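In the design runs reported in the main text, the only information available to the sequence generator was the tokenized backbone. The following block is the verbatim input for one such run; it is reproduced so that readers can re-run the procedure and compare outputs position by position.
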């Protein structure tokens, strides 16, 4: 897909950290650009569940409107500490060390990047965290040509639930031929 080759400085720093730590599950640039684009339409509080090395937060921070803030939670305390240092001079990002649920106190979210597997599996949890009109982004799906969606020979009930739950209006978008994201807007 066509995209500028220049990466924002804070995203490049987070990607460097991922490389140094051998952390292979960082958000890819295509998804990051989508996060930044969505962030630019939001006000209030944006969140991320599962900070990793900070790549998603970095993209969100580059897109976020003035006055909006990003809070992100990372379960691994050592990783959270390193990423807190990475964002020390970035005003609109706060990284907390702990389970994703430590962010419940910041709800409702206008945008939430759900990057913790167990939470991704629970539409109920995410529905309770969102403001009306808030957008949830879930990545790392494998595109399926069928309905209901099939993954590894079985119906992908999680994706089926996300795309049919009446609390959200949702769509699956291709990131590339082998990867998709779900964008779900809270009614
Ligand atoms: C896929 S990685 C996150 C990648 C990151 N969002 C990015 O944009 O590059 C998932 C992260 O979630 C963290 N994690 C796992 N369970 C968690 C939980 N219950 N609460 C918060 N973070 C969790 C893992 O330690 C890991 O760093």
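Verbatim output:
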């Amino acid at each position: 897909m066509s995209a500028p080759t220049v990466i924002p400085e804070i995203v490049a720093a987070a990607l460097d950290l991922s490389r140094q730590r051998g952390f292979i599950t960082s958000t890819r640039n295509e998804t990051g650009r989508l996060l930044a684009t969505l962030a630019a339409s939001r006000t209030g509080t944006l969140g991320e569940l599962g900070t990793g090395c900070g790549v998603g937060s970095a993209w969100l921070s580059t897109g976020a409107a003035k006055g909006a803030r990003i809070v992100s939670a990372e379960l691994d305390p050592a990783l959270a500490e390193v990423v807190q240092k990475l964002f020390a001079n970035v005003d609109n990002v706060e990284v907390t060390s702990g389970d994703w649920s430590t962010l419940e106190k910041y709800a409702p979210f206008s945008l939430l990047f759900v990057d913790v597997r167990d939470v991704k599996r629970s539409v109920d949890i995410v529905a309770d965290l969102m403001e009306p009109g808030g957008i949830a982004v879930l990545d790392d799906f494998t595109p399926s040509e069928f309905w209901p969606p099939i993954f590894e020979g079985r119906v992908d009930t999680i994706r089926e639930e996300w795309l049919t739950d009446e609390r959200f209006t949702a769509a699956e978008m291709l990131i590339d031929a082998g990867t998709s994201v779900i964008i779900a807007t809270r009614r």
